[in-house]
Amino acid sequence: PWISSYAGFVGGSSDDTSGKWPEENASRRKGWRHGKHPFAENDAKQWAAWGFDYLKYDWNPNDIRHVSEMADALRASGRDIVYSLSNSAPFDKAADWAQLANCWRTTGDIRDTWPSISSIGFSQNKWTPFAGPGHFNDADMLVVGRVGWGPNLHPSKLTPDEQYTHISLWCLLASPMLLGCDLTRLDDFTLNLLTNDEVLEVSQDPLCRQARQLFADFRHEIWVKEMEDGSIAAGLFNRSALFEDSKTITVNFANLKIKGPCRVRDLWRQKDLGTFKNNFQAKVPPHGVVLVRIFPQ
Prior knowledge:
By secondary structure, the chain is an alpha+beta fold.
């Protein structure tokens, strides 16, 4: 909605009623402000005519006035367009974002490093109440495969275990699964990582609930998500340093408000692990995850 985009191109408003955009606005930050005359309605109609499906509306900080302005324009456009807010939507207005938009970035930009994905992914618990059908907390794009900015892409710097953690956590969080990699150069590992139907089912569950943090002690965490069929998806995460040993993490069924026995299935391996009476425990490698689905009997 600013006069200029972050990259120095024409934005969605102007100080001129004609929409004139002086080239001087391309200079860094000069056009990073709201113009006197917004063109949200005209823009939305044009995008609808072009057949657009998704709008990422990008400025900071997000504010109710301009979010509402574009929400109304998109609804009046005659086309169903996903409305995504970026970036770092203020948490104190979370209920408003859930009413006005389909998804909103809860963070700054992600990077393909363990500090980035772990600090973002494991800090989402406060946003849990605001996810639901048609509106989702967006923890930013997936950083697997060949990623980067501009023409010089590189393989993700995340280890395999860190990539399993990344995809598992984003599925539990019901975060939009946006691919930021070069799809024409997917290797077998990345393709398998992105096409496990039992893992993706956690993301796509019709209840659209975001997982909640059941347990955390700064090194080990358990996140759980209630599924439509009455089962529970659970991620057992080990945030210990890479040089440390695998850790045994236990999920007590009483803490899930269910009673045993329960059938437990490993979703990455697509394998039943057996029936357990009071709890389930697994060894989890550093920076790794065991993602399971618990079915009360």
